[in-house]
Amino acid sequence: MKTIAIAGTFDTKGREFAYVKRLVEQLGIKPFMIHTGVFEPAFSVDVTNDEIAAAVGQDIKAIVKRKDRALATETLSKGMEKLVPELYRQKKFDGIISFGGSGGTSLVTPAMRALPIGVPKVMVSTMASGNVSQYVGTSDIVMMPSIVDVAGLNKISKMIFSNAVLAIAGMVEGRDRLTVDTSESKPLIAASMFGVTTPCVDAAKDYLEQNGYEVLVFHATGTGGRTMDALINEGFFAGVLDLTTTEWADELVGGVLNAGQHRCEAAVNKKIPQVVSVGACDMVNFGPIDTVPQQFSARNLYKHNPTVTLMRTTVDENKQIGEKLASKWNAAQVPMTVLLPKRGVSMIDADGQPFNGVEERRALFDAIERGIDNPNVEIVELDNNINDKDFALTAARKLIELIEKK
User: Which residue among 70, 174, 179, 245 is buried most deeply as judged by most CB within 10 Å?
Assistant: First the structure.
């Protein structure tokens, strides 16, 4: 029998979760009840809030006596994040579902994010119709709008609860009905791409696939870079083709597509062969042109489309970007290669294009070359634009060489 973990505040929303439990049982699936509330649950559970708090060395009853709601919520969230993956490893459940508002969503989604990719995860939330990046992160959580608040049973909420249970049940039970294609298992390559580096990555991808590799391409939009690094850390890849490191331009200058301070660390930390470059470091990303911050209004702006405005990075900004990339790559413990395209780092950083910048590129390259003194790091300047086929094939061939040497 399949098992679905149902996590939630069974003290304040006991009636709603009891209803969900009955729906799961009607489908012939075993419910595994995890109580994330502060007070006593309305029915018997499989995992108590005491156990959740104890997973991070806390006593929930002592916290309740202090009447510190913030501490209780933080403790239960951290306890869930630690305990739920361990329960999954013990085969206590096959998928997990939860329902809640902002509090309930922030309580359970960290635990969902801690589960491996592929484990069914459904979060029915009042927050699901807005920006859910803080809840989903780099995971595969399915966020489902609750339409009405998770507060009572009514015609709408019953319909939503039913659909959500059917969704998680289908994920859990349907997996055994699908035939998994195991005819070939190729080594995986992670590649970063942006619209303005697409020809390069497409050409490199074709070459790698012709030579027995499978390439997973990640769009360097902040979330894409973080997701790629998360999967690198999970050990999915034999090699990394990180040619589009533009997210550092947004991180350092203040654009909207930053990937955080740990971007470009994963392959280094995992000692995975990689070939890297500075694709699209000529630009910082903003939304529609009227959303560009006032201090940048006199800069070289390019309206990529109605919803995306690009800003050319300056000489000084390129120096900062180069220094940051160098600091990440200089930590390499296995051989890697940095390829620098002398004729431009994107489609629009090229002869006759709006972001063509010889001085900016030189500042970027010089900062990288000055900042790297690690014999494991090979730096090669190529007389190409990043999107030239020769550049792409050089990157692909070099990556194969590094993988085979390892």
Answer: 245
pLDDT at 305: 87
Distance CA 210, CA 4 (A): 41
**pLDDT score recorded for residue 211:** 97
Q: How many CB atoms lie within 10 A of CB 270?
A: 18
Count other C-beta atoms under 10 Å from residue 65's C-beta. 9
The reported pLDDT for the residue numbered 182 is 61
Render 39-87 in DSSP notation, one character per residue: S--SS--SB-HHHHHHTTT--HHHHHHHT-HHHHHHHHHHHHHHHHHHH
Residue 179 confidence (pLDDT): 75
Q: Which residue has the tokens 């990556």?
A: 399
In degrees, rounded to 5, the angle at the alpha carbon of residue 279 between the alpha carbons of residues 238 and 327 is: 70
pLDDT tens digits, residue range 47-101? 999 999 999 999 999 998 988 888 999 999 999 999 999 999 999 999 999 999 9
Backbone angles phi, psi at 387, to 5 degrees: -90, 0
In order, the DSSP letters of 271-289 are T--EEE--TTTTEEEESSG
Residue 252: what residue type? L
Contact 98, 123 (CB under 8 A): yes
- Closest by CA position to 83, among listed 36, 43, 42, 119: 36
Q: Which amino acid is at 67?
A: K
Give every residue of the chain whose pLDDT is below 70, as ranges.
180-184
Q: Dig out the tokens for 335 from the structure.
A: 């051989």
Residues 6+ apart with CB under 8 A from 61: 50
In total, the chain counts a number of residues equal to 406
CB 250 within 8 A of CB 284: yes
CA atoms of 143 and 126, how far apart (whole Å): 10
Convert the pLDDT of each residue in 265-304 to its tens digit: 999 999 999 999 999 999 999 999 999 999 999 999 999 8
Write out the DSSP string of 144-193: EE-SS-SSS--HHHHHHHHHHHHHHHHHHHHGGGSPP--S--PPEEEEEE
Residue 62 CB neighbours (<10 A): 11
Predicted local confidence at residue 181, as pLDDT:
67
Pick the closest to residue 312 from 290, 291, 342, 292 (CA basis): 292
HSE of 233, CA atoms in CB hemisphere, 13 A: 15
Predicted pLDDT of residue 178: 82
Dihedral angle computed from the Cα positions of residues 123, 126, 129 and 130, in that order, rounded to the nearest 10 degrees: -100
